[in-house]
Design goal:
Number of strands of chain A: 2
Helix content of chain A: over 70%
Order of helices and strands of chain B: HHHHHHHHH
Helix content of chain B: over 70%
Structural class of chain B: mainly alpha
Largest interface: A-B, 131 and 134 residues
Oligomer: heterodimer
Shape of chain A: globular
Strand order of the largest sheet of chain A: 1-2
Shape of chain B: globular
Strand content of chain A: under 5%
Largest sheet of chain A: 2 strands, antiparallel
Distance between the termini of chain B: 22 Å
Structural class of chain A: mainly alpha
Number of strands of chain B: 0
Largest sheet of chain B: none
Amino acid sequence: MNEQWLGLITGIFFGALLQQGRVLRFEKQIGAMLLKDMTIMKFMMSAILVGVVGVHLAVAAGLAQLSPKATQVGANVVGGLLFGLGWAVMGFCPGTSVGAVAEGRWHALFAIAGMLAGAALYAEAYAYLQKNLLAVGNLGKLTLPGVLGVGAWAVIPILVAVFILVFVFFEKKGL
Amino acid sequence: MRINWRPYIAGALVGVLATVSVVVTTKTLGKTQFLGASTTFVRGAGFIEQTVEPQHVKTNPYFIKEKVKLDWQFMLVVGIFIGALAAALIDGSFKLEAVPPVWRERFGGSVGLRAAGAFVGGIVAMFGARLADGCPSGHGLSGLMQLSVSGFISLACFFGAGVVTAALVYGGKGGVR
C-alpha cells in the first residue's frame, strides 16, 4: 500500500476517534483552558498513556524507530506560547479544526483559513528567524530518559502512574 | 461517582492507532510516521501559493525544507475530515453551527466577529505551531509518546498560554461560569 492511502486510512480512524471522544468541539477545547471540563486532557493523556507503552514496545521489538523533534528551547517556548494564545481565541487546534468542520461546526473554516495564512506568513519569516530565535537553545533530539541517563522503562511507569493519579483527581473534582 | 468513559476509551484507542501506525509505516514505507497535523497547513499554503507564484514557492527555504507535496500526513488530515464526518453522521451528532454557545455568551451571535476571531486566532496559532515545530498532535500526542523533551516544553507552553488567554477572553464577569 502506498504512503497516501496509508495516511488516509489512518486519518479516517483518527478522525472518527476524535469525533467520538467529543474533543473536536470549541466548548471542549475552551473548557479545558478554563480548567472546567477536562475532556480533551483525558483524551490526550489516555492516548499518550497507551501510546507511550505501545511505541516503546514496538521500538524494543525493532519494529519502529523513535523520531523525536529537536529541542529548540527558544522556538519551543515562544512558538508554544504564541500557539496557546491563538488556540484560545480560535478554539481549535490544527487537527481538530478539520474534524470540527466535518461535524458541522463550519465556523472552523475561518480557523483553517487563518492557519493557512499563518503558515504562509511563517514561510516568509523562516529565513530571518533561522538567524536568531531558531538558533537559541538548540539541544538536538532529546528525550527525557536520555537527559536523565536512564532507560525509557524507568520513566514510563512513573508517567503512567502520574497520569492515572491526574485522572482520579479529574473524576473526584467532576472536571 | 459516575464516570464518563468516552474520552478515556476514544483516547486509549488513539494510543493503539498510533502504535499500529508506527509499526505499519516502518514496515511498508521504511520510515516511522507519527501522528501530526500542522505541517500539512504549510503544504496547503504552498499548494495555494503555487497557483499564483510557483517560482516563489520553489525558492522559499521553508517550503523547500517541508516539501510541498501530498504526503502521508496531508492524507491523514484529509482522513480526519472523512472519519469525523462519518462518525458524526452515524451517531447523529452532526450539527451546523456558525457561532459556538460559549463564544455567543461572551461576544454575542455575530457570525462576522466569530469568523474574525477564528481567522486571527488561526494566524497566531499556526505561526506559533510552526515556530515550535509542532501542534498538540505532533508535540503533544506524538512527542509525549516518545518522551521527547521538546514535546513536554511545547505542550506546557500551549496550555500555559491557553489557560491565561482563555481566562482573559472568556472568563471574568459575565463570562462563562
